[in-house]
Amino acid sequence: MTTASLDKYGSETQQNEAGRHEMASQEAHRNPARGRSKKPRLRLRATRSEARRLNRRSFAGVGLGLLVFFALMTAAITFIAGDQMGPGGSFGSGVDLASPEGLVAGLITGANMFGIITLSLWAAATASDYSTGWMRVLVQAEPRRWRLYGGKLAALAAYTLVGMAAAAVVSVAAAPALAGAAGISTTAWSSGVVDTVLSTWANVVLSVLAWGVIGLAVATLTRSATAAIAGGIGYLMVVEGLLGMVFDSGVTTYLPGSSLGAVAAGGTASLAYGNALLLGLAYAVVAILIAGLVFARRDITS
Amino acid sequence: MDNHAITTRGLTRRFGAITAVDSVDLDIPRGGVVGIVGPNGAGKSTTIRMLLGLIEPTDGAGTVFGEPITRPKRYADRVGALIENPAFLPNISARANVQSMATLRGVPSDRVDDVLEIVGLSDRADDCVSKYSLGMKQRLGIAIALLPDPELLVLDEPTNGLDPAGIVEVRQLLRRLGDEGRTVVVSSHLLSEIEAAADYLVVIRFGKILFAGPLGDLLEQERRYVDLQPEMESEIEDLASVYTNAGYDVTIEPDTVRVVIDPVESANLNRLAIENGFVLRQLIRSNENLEDVFLRMTDANTEVAA
Question: Is the ipTM of this complex over 0.85?
Answer without folding.
Answer: no
